[in-house]
Design a protein that fits this description.
heterodimer; A: alpha+beta; Ribosomal Protein L22, Chain A; five-stranded antiparallel β-sheet; B: about 80 residues; Non-ribosomal Peptide Synthetase Peptidyl Carrier Protein, Chain A
């Protein structure tokens, strides 16, 4: 299963005061906190680790059909390799490992998490004014050769979105995310 | 503290983080932080920290895990206050 998360840097700076007492302690392990504090760009590093946790949470929740929870500290992040614009990471939750790939741009970062290191996906990042759900439907329609009008996005009892065609659910691994001015989806091709 | 008082305090705490202000109009025990108020997940930690400050309690990780609605928060606050 896959998950994704997008962070709009400007919105994040307005919405969150990461220097607030207790903020980092509630979200990050000591090891992760030192990754943040020792970074040249601590705020960006913080949102990178946060997005890794969020994207992995989505993949993990879908995989095991889990009810919602807010347990960021159970997701342990490790940075494997990367540079200023692209970071490969690994996130461990209980006895499961997930691999993350994050693109870091000027205004946002986008993270995809997957159980598998090499996963064929299609992804789109849009400015918020565009309807990301419609964009996902268009993509699925083209890939699976289903009429656009027949495809719906619904949510299950755990609030996990899924696609239906004429009332029947479509077997399709995807994840949606939006924050501030940006929205994104990732769709598995395997 | 009465339920009404507690809910009023909670409403004041979450208000700055609410993305969908319409959700505040029907604020009650059934209000969901994510689905109804569209609170950004990164702001859930601010709600937890503000609750800690306001009620002078400590919300451990296990409690934070389940704090996704007004009812969840109310139950946790009451439980922690009773243990003080």
């Amino acid at each position: 299963m896959i998950g994704n998360d997008i962070v709009d840097f400007n919105t994040a700076a307005l919405q969150s005061n990461w220097l607030r007492r207790g903020f980092c302690e509630k979200l990050f392990s000591e090891q992760e906190q030192s990754l943040i504090l020792n970074s040249q760009f601590p705020e960006r590093r913080l949102w990178l680790l946060w997005a890794m946790k969020e994207a992995t949470y989505k993949a993990h929740q879908r995989r095991f059909k889990l009810p919602r929870s807010f347990n960021p500290k159970q997701f342990n992040c490790e940075i494997i390799a990367g540079d200023k614009t692209s970071v490969m990471g690994k996130v461990q939750i209980r006895d499961c490992d997930y691999y993350t790939q994050t693109y870091i741009g000027e205004d946002y970062l986008h993270c995809i998490a997957s159980q598998f290191q090499q996963k064929k996906t299609v992804q789109k990042i849009l400015s918020h004014s565009t309807d990301i759900k419609q964009e996902l439907i268009l993509t699925v329609s083209a890939l699976k050769k289903i009429q656009i009008e027949k495809i719906c996005i619904k949510k299950d009892c755990n609030f996990i979105p899924y696609l239906t065609c004429g009332g029947f659910s479509i077997n399709c691994d995807f994840s949606l995310s939006h924050h501030g001015n940006f929205s994104a989806f990732v769709l598995s091709l395997t | 503290m009465s339920d009404k008082e507690l809910l009023e305090k909670l409403k004041n705490i979450v208000t700055p983080y609410v993305q969908d202000k319409e959700g505040l109009e029907n604020f009650d025990e059934n209000t969901d932080f994510l689905n109804d108020l569209k609170i950004n997940s990164a702001n859930l930690v601010d709600v937890v920290l503000d609750v800690e400050d306001e009620f002078n309690i400590e919300i451990d990780n296990d409690s934070m895990n389940d704090m996704l609605s007004v009812l969840d928060a109310k139950n946790i606050i009451q439980y922690k206050l009773a243990g003080k």
